[in-house]
Amino acid sequence: MADPQGERAKEAVAGLDGVAVHTDPVAALEAPGVSAVLIASPGPAHEEALLAAFERGLPVLCEKPMVPDSTGALRVVEAEARLGRRLAQIGFMRRYDAEYRRLKALLDGGSLGRPLMLHCTHRNVSSPPDFTSAMLINSSVAHEIDAARWLLGQELTAVTVLRPASSAGAPEGLIDPQFVLFETERGALVDVEVFVNCGFGYQVRCEAVCEAGSARIGDEHTMLVTRRGSAAEEVAQDYLVRFADAYDREVQAWVDATRRGEVTGPSVWDGYAASVVAEAGVRALETGGRVAVDLAPRPDLYAGVSR
Amino acid sequence: MADPQGERAKEAVAGLDGVAVHTDPVAALEAPGVSAVLIASPGPAHEEALLAAFERGLPVLCEKPMVPDSTGALRVVEAEARLGRRLAQIGFMRRYDAEYRRLKALLDGGSLGRPLMLHCTHRNVSSPPDFTSAMLINSSVAHEIDAARWLLGQELTAVTVLRPASSAGAPEGLIDPQFVLFETERGALVDVEVFVNCGFGYQVRCEAVCEAGSARIGDEHTMLVTRRGSAAEEVAQDYLVRFADAYDREVQAWVDATRRGEVTGPSVWDGYAASVVAEAGVRALETGGRVAVDLAPRPDLYAGVSR
Amino acid sequence: MADPQGERAKEAVAGLDGVAVHTDPVAALEAPGVSAVLIASPGPAHEEALLAAFERGLPVLCEKPMVPDSTGALRVVEAEARLGRRLAQIGFMRRYDAEYRRLKALLDGGSLGRPLMLHCTHRNVSSPPDFTSAMLINSSVAHEIDAARWLLGQELTAVTVLRPASSAGAPEGLIDPQFVLFETERGALVDVEVFVNCGFGYQVRCEAVCEAGSARIGDEHTMLVTRRGSAAEEVAQDYLVRFADAYDREVQAWVDATRRGEVTGPSVWDGYAASVVAEAGVRALETGGRVAVDLAPRPDLYAGVSR
Amino acid sequence: MADPQGERAKEAVAGLDGVAVHTDPVAALEAPGVSAVLIASPGPAHEEALLAAFERGLPVLCEKPMVPDSTGALRVVEAEARLGRRLAQIGFMRRYDAEYRRLKALLDGGSLGRPLMLHCTHRNVSSPPDFTSAMLINSSVAHEIDAARWLLGQELTAVTVLRPASSAGAPEGLIDPQFVLFETERGALVDVEVFVNCGFGYQVRCEAVCEAGSARIGDEHTMLVTRRGSAAEEVAQDYLVRFADAYDREVQAWVDATRRGEVTGPSVWDGYAASVVAEAGVRALETGGRVAVDLAPRPDLYAGVSR
Questions:
Q1: Which terminus in chain A has less CB density within 10 A, N or C?
Q2: Is the confidence at residue C92, as pLDDT, over 90?
Q3: Inter-chain touch D230–B235, beta carbons under 8 Å
Q4: Could A237 and B59 be called an inter-chain contact, meaning their C-beta atoms sit closer than 8 Å?
Q5: Percent of chain B at pLDDT exceeding 90
Q6: Residue A245 parent element (H or E)
């Protein structure tokens, strides 16, 4: 791990075996055993780190913005193009969001026809100090820029920014909200409301309007698809889809607790009680009547129903 | 790893360093370096494995059902109680589902007052072969039994099972759906529709009706809370909540691709294009006009907008 | 019009031409020009009024409950059956609610298969003074009794009432909420949560669970239908459906204002402004540019944009 | 009633007492007993009819467009302004829609702060023959023009129309969809997607984005209000709100059936059955057990549960 502040790095990796700490990123790249690189430093440091990884043939995951200015970004493109093979993955994480992926799959599937418009919303509760009017575009809308290119599979060809009256909730001088219009190479229109001091929540929404229907994500953790006569959400077909997060969290909670030397979660008393109730339930099914549940006395170890 | 079918186990751990394969679970427990045990064998094998882990003082995560019959389950309780400390976490994974956790936190917070009723739904598209009428209770409703005990912090005291007309979509002779009523030690009522051949989807829902409001989970990946005059969903307050899954998937996709020797996901061309568009956007903001986006020629390596 | 309190009746019909006021309902029925009868008196007065209307062959709309006790109700049935033709419509108004009608049409259409269960909710903010535990059944659930019979096209054959712990928000001694289970002649199950001091709102919901899907009304003014893999709402196909209520209210508002000698609503200034803006919009479409809207000075008569 | 096609008019008023039919609208205005005028003729006929009504001091409800061109519209404004009092209500019926009224009340109430943007959608399944690109503005968006002026209480000051690629579902040569941007006198921005051959439904939506929250109508027959941390719908507080439409339809159905000499709707058998079931329910409440429902034999007159 490399961090100019070595102490901070040491804290971060405390408890992990075999992680060396460096203050110089290039030295870190050259350390033995390095097979891939994750760049999460501030944007201005990315170009040098990317080029160094390219030289060494190391695969790299680089946080966005890849490089803050387009001239430097082009140098990175040219360097990788000269290598003739891809080494870098850029951190546009929306492409990995479950809702965006469903929307992308729907659009690519073609059942809604050609996309004509994307209506996008990007709202933050409040902006950080020193946030400038330009940053609404190059920091916030930057996400919509990549999402629109990816969803549509088209380059953006022109942009216009409208300025409605700024909110009294925005810092003095900040142009907020803004309304941004993008045109694409095949004539689609992308509009983005960006409002970084909306006060009420973090909302990222996208509605794709196509020739044969529309689809909207971001209101709930689901996708609403409107086609001939109906506005529908998909219903999960099995428990692995519905409870994927629960299974992950369950095992992680167990691993974490075990590392701390603790045991948490549902206890054997819970397992026993479930068993007794289920047996009573089966008898109730068989007899048609009400069946009382008869539990053994609860050992003190399990005082209270477990939390 | 232990599996009576050693070959299957060998396949499962191929590519993982330092994992020994056993066919006898107790031998596996005694192998050097074992510090915790995950039991995912069929239910009848659980009791022996749990007791063996207890003897060796090993923390254990045991899949549900803990032990298929309540007599064996009580033996496990007594064995752990004799140890005087908890070693086992039972695999009731709903307690780790995001929606259930929000509901639990809301009920425990007390703002809705005392819970009076839980209305639960448990629907599967279709049941596996050989699924019996009793298994609707002891396999399917088993989840609601634990969830109700946990959500309410109360033991269940009686159960009644009603049998509406069975669906034509259920296998001959299966009593499906069933409607199960539980009473609790402090007078709450829990009703469960269990319908394992509903044909249309996997749906798990729970509405808690309390003295000062109700809350429902399971319709969307959100929780709807009804209180004085309003039915509301929580709006996320920051991107870490909204895009937690995207960040996890992004890094996992990178790790997986790197292991396969591939590079996937957003490319440096995407990083470059985003940078050019953002710069055009900032100019559009400053000038108030429409600004064309001027990209360099795209190297062949990045043919097409990346998918 | 007949009302034992003649003064109250006189007030009610003030301003309507040709309406005679009576204190005796039977005298009112015999008055010249009476061609139909609407009975909105308290329940105990209904039987006599219905029988009197039957004797005179008058069609009648009678508020629910038709007759408070079933013995009297049976006398009314027998009287009309002797006539050999129907004269009475009973005021179960849910059969005329848009959502209930959509649900009924869906069930009758048969696409969801046979209904197996109805899950019903009936919640009031608070109960009137002197509301008794029995009135939760015979006044509140009375609506679900008719709705279930009508939706299913089946008689109810048995009933069970469960008593969860009563809410602290209910008056001392009132058993509230209650959970009522009805069985039907073809084996469907109807469960009703009735909670007349829920505190938060008036909610009437019904979910019909069928062999091939489920449909729920009452959450929004829409119907959610879940079938193979999708949970969908119908999208209106034309403006007459979407804005039916607006057209009715518009004309009614005009008639009401005209009667009061007033003119309200959108003004000719609004008509003019819309016309100017639309013309500017058409020019903007033709030119591709931004077109300013140029309004004539606004006469004082239309100060402010009309409300 | 006046209609240039007198026969059509005669059919329309058949069965209504005391309605005279005219082919000349001005003659109709001068007929005895005329106290108010409803103009539903094609737009080009409106100006003459409005001015004639003004001369005679008659209140008038005039369908939109008030007058097709703004010059004629201004003449109407000037004529009424000369009278010094309002006589005309223009048929912008959205102002009478329940959802729009809720949104208007919310904005006027001020709790969301100043409105900054309106995002509007206007979609039709398909356009009528001979619909032109200009008519998307002056016939369809005309509704949003009035709605925006009314909701915001501001005049619109400029307009821009963007043309995304037209849908393959639109007739050859029709520019459809269009994206229209309005600016207002106090700096709000109104954007309108108008798409009159969307194929899937009639959708009219409006989201008002304000300084302290946003509110959206048109997705369901409800309004979703997002404020600090929550997205909420209002829950009705009593049955008069929830079932207002049912009561209206119930009485109307009775009046209509009575006029046709028929009796429809819930029968006295339904009233009787409800009474028997309610009595059984009360016994079930009192005894805690299951109580069978015992109906008298059903007279043939009531064969089947009434529909």
A1: C
A2: no
A3: yes
A4: no
A5: 34
A6: helix A244-259
Q: Which of A203, A255, A289 sits opposite B235 (nearest CB)?
A: A203
**pLDDT for C157-175, tens place per residue?**
999 999 999 999 999 999 9
- For residue D298, the one-letter residue type is R
| Contact indicator for A116, D177 with CB cutoff of 8 Å | yes
- Quick count: other Cβ atoms within 10 Å of Cβ A27? 11
First to last CA, chain C: 38
Q: Does residue A307 form part of some domain?
A: no
**pLDDT one-digit tens code per residue, D48-80:** 999 999 999 998 888 888 888 899 999 999 999
Q: What is the average per-residue pLDDT within B126-137?
A: 92
Q: What is the CATH number of the domain that holds C216?
A: 3.30.360.10
Q: Are residues C224 and C106 in the same domain?
A: yes
Structure confidence at residue C179 (pLDDT): 95
**Across A228-252, average pLDDT:** 73
Burial A177-188 (b: 16+ CB within 10 A, else e): bbbbbbbbeeeb
pLDDT at A305: 55
CB distance C231–A231 less than 8 Å?
no
Looking at CA atoms only, how far is residue D259 from chain A in angstroms?
35
The per-residue pLDDT for D251 is: 82
Closest Cα in chain C, distance from residue B212 (Å): 6
D74 contacts D50 by C-beta, under 8 angstroms:
no
Domain assignment of residue D1, yes or no: no
Query: Is omega for the bond preceding B4 within 30 degrees of 0, making it cis?
Result: no
pLDDT of residue D222: 62
Kindly report the nearest CA distance between residue B302 and chain A, in angstroms.
8
- The pLDDT of residue D304 is 62
Interchain proximity B164–C117, CB inside 8 Å: yes
Task: Return the pLDDT at B221.
Answer: 55
* pLDDT of amino acid A254: 84
Local confidence band at B307 (pLDDT 50, 70, 90 cut-offs):
very low
pLDDT of residue A237: 67
Same domain? For B32 and B83 the reply is yes
Q: Quick one: average pLDDT of B117-136?
A: 93
Are A268 and A206 members of one domain? no
Interface check B203 vs A, CB under 8 A: yes
Residues 219..248 of A with a Cβ closer than 8 Å to C: which? 226, 229-235, 237
Last residue of a domain, one of A195, A210, A235: A235
Burial string for D52-66 (b: 16+ CB within 10 Å, else e) reads bbbeeebbbbbbbbb
User: What proportion of chain A, given as a percentage, has pLDDT over 90?
Assistant: 35
Q: Which residues, 6 or more positions from C207, have their beta carbon under 8 angstroms from its beta carbon? A: C118, C119, C120, C214, C215, C216, C217
For residue C75, the chain D residue with the least C-alpha distance is D272
How far apart are alpha carbons B57 and D305 in whole angstroms?
67
Q: Between chain B and chain C, how many beta carbons pairs sit less than 8 Å apart? A: 106
Q: Is the pLDDT of residue C141 over 80?
A: yes
- Does residue B84 sit in the same domain as residue B136? no
Of B188, B209, B235, which one is at a domain's C-terminal end? B235
Strands of A140-241 (E only): list them. Answer: 156-162, 178-184, 189-195, 203-210, 213-217, 223-227, 230-234
For residue A44, give its domain range. 6-93
Q: Which residues on chain D are in Cβ contact (under 8 Å) with A116?
A: 164-165, 167, 177, 195
In this structure, the answer to whether residues B118 and B194 fall within a common structural domain is yes
Structure tokens at A122: 């990007």
Same domain? For A121 and A220 the reply is yes
Residues A87 and A99 in one domain: no
Q: Is residue B307 part of a domain?
A: no
Interface check C144 vs D, CB under 8 A: no
Flag whether residue D185 sits within 8 Å of chain C, measured between CB atoms: no
Q: Is residue D150 within 8 angstroms of chain C, CB to CB?
A: yes
Instruction: Choose among A278, A274, A271: nearest CA to B89.
Output: A271
Number of domains in chain C: 3
Q: Which of B133, B254, B266 sits opposite A92 (nearest CB)?
A: B266
Per-residue pLDDT, averaged over D159-178, amounts to 94
